[in-house]
Amino acid sequence: MNIIVTESYDASAAFVADMIAALINEKPACKLGLATGGTPVPIYQKLIAKNAAGEVDFSAVRTVNLDEYCGLPGDHDQSYRYFMDTNLFNHVNIDKANTFVANGLGDPAANAAELDAKVAEGGPCDLQLLGIGNNGHIAFNEAGDMLTAESHIETLTESTIRANARFFEKAED
Fold it and tell me: If DSSP codes are grouped into helix, strand and coil, which group holds residue 65?
């Protein structure tokens, strides 16, 4: 395994954006697992610039995101569909029909099953971008005694609620 150390967060974002762009250029119909939150935003900004400069073409790329808030429609400014649209998808030449963010409305179990199907569709992601929450959670899978392989509804811990409350009118939201 190679370990890459960069001089700055910006250099790290550039390195990851270059890695993603190289994958897309090598395999135009690749499947990307994407993340939300503050960490990937600089990566997405660099990918947008690369797309605008003609250095990478998203037209055949497929994406899947691993989490969404229950109870939020995709056009809510705190939904992860909205996040992905405003931070990446609206700014590159991706076919939004090839992007998937779980539905936050309707039957949570059916939404989780749909997410599982999308994750499995066409095989594993060629690249999975993940963020780690302040308490070690990944894609809102709270740290605990057991890992759950399937999509599921997760009850957020108080520390995760506190960390994300700043994005909402009130913590209960």
Answer: strand
* pLDDT tens digits, 90-107: 999 999 999 999 999 999
Active site annotation includes 158: no
HSE on the CB side for 5, CA within 13 Å?
0
Per the annotation, the verdict on 137 as an active-site residue is yes
pTM assigned to the model:
0.85
Report how far apart, in Å, the C-alpha atoms of 67 and of each of 15, 28, 33, 173 are: 25, 24, 11, 17
Hey, what are 46's tokens?
């660099």
Q: Tell me whether residue 67 is one of the annotated catalytic residues.
A: yes
10-32 pLDDT, tens digit each: 999 999 999 999 999 999 999 99
Residues 6+ away with beta carbon under 8 Å from 83: 36
Tokens of 59: 């037209």
Distances (CA, A) of 140 to 47, 67, 152, 159: 25, 7, 10, 12
